[in-house]
Structures are given as C-alpha cells and as structure tokens.
Amino acid sequence: MADKKSDTTDEKRREGDKAPEGKKKKPIVLIAAALGVALLLGVFFIGQSVSAKSRHAKPVKAEPGPVLPLDEFLVNLSDAGGDHFLKATINLELSKAKGKTPEGMKEQVPEIRDAILMTLSGKQRGDLGPAAGRVKLKEEIKARVNTVLGENDVQEVYFTNFVTQ
C-alpha cells in the first residue's frame, strides 16, 4: 500500500510538473511582450523629446569676424520710369576663421563694390519694401560677393543705412 501511495504521489508530481510547465511559459511570454512594448514606447518618447529639443535649439553662429565698412551706395532702381533710387551703406563681416581682415581686403574693394552695385541696381522698389525682401537682398549680396572673391570670405552683410525713394 505504501507502494501505491508513492506511485500515486509520483504520478501526481509528474502530472503536476507538466501542468505548471505550460503555465510557466505564459507568464514569461507575457512579461517579454510587456517589456518589448515598454521598450518601444520608451524609444518613441525619448525620440520625441530629442527631436523637440533640436527644433528649439538655436543655430550655432560662427564667431563674429572683422567688419569691412564700404562707402555709401546710391543706385537707380530698375522700376519702370526710373524714378526711384536706393541709398544704402553696407558693411561686410569677414571670416575670422580664414584670417580675413579689412586691411587685407582693400585691394578687392572695387570688385566687391561692383558686385554689390550690380545686385542693387537690378532691384525694384517693391522688392525692397518688406523686411523679407531686405533679408533676401542680404543673402544675394553675400552670395555674389563670395562668388566674385572665389571663397566664402563674407559671413554676414549689414545695412547701416537703407533708404528708397
């Protein structure tokens, strides 16, 4: 009888071992799935916060360089009738990284002024009225002068006087 009890107990253990084994796999699978979902959500939200920070980050501006002041420009604008003109004083910020100085650029001032005059005289009064038009003009002057010089020597263009009539 003791043998029957031990046999019955052994059978129950074997059956008991089989049942929990299947039940043990379900919690492991659920835990693994939950961890996977948590990991994906974490990556998503971290990515969102990083991209939000990068949208609000200010662009890194190059260190200010020396400024080359230019004499006043007075040009007729290309409006129909030729009744309008532009009077502007422009300064060019040079590349400090390239070691450019106003004294070193003196010989190139005639080419620089010519490039600026050609850019200004091709404009109409309506192009220069809104602030966006003047910002665009600054970019055009910068690109044209850098093309004439053959290098990116000009970092920024500043209007210190700007009048249309």
Total DSSP E strands: 4
The CATH class of the largest domain, by name, is: Alpha Beta
Percentage of β-strand residues: 15-25%
Instruction: Kindly give the count of domains.
Output: 2
What's the helix-strand series? Answer: HEEEHHHHE
Sketch the major β-sheet. 4 strands, antiparallel
Unreliable sequence segments: none
- Cα gyration radius (Å): 37 Å
CATH architecture verdict of the largest domain: 2-Layer Sandwich
Considering DSSP H and I runs of 4 or more, what fraction of the residues is helical? 55-70%
User: Judging from the principal axes of the Cα atoms, what is the shape?
Assistant: elongated
Mean pLDDT: 81
> Which fold does the CATH topology of the largest domain refer to?
Tetrahydropterin Synthase, Chain A
Strand-pairing-aware structural class: alpha+beta
Tally of individual helices: 5
Q: How far is the N terminus from the C terminus?
A: 120 Å
Tell me about this structure.
This protein has helices spanning 2-56, 102-105, 109-121, 125-128, 131-149; strands at residues 67-69, 73-76, 85-94, 154-164. It has 165 residues and is an alpha+beta fold. The chain has two domains: 1-57; 67-164, Tetrahydropterin Synthase, Chain A, CATH 3.30.479. Helix 3 (109-121) runs antiparallel to helix 5 (131-149). The termini are far apart.
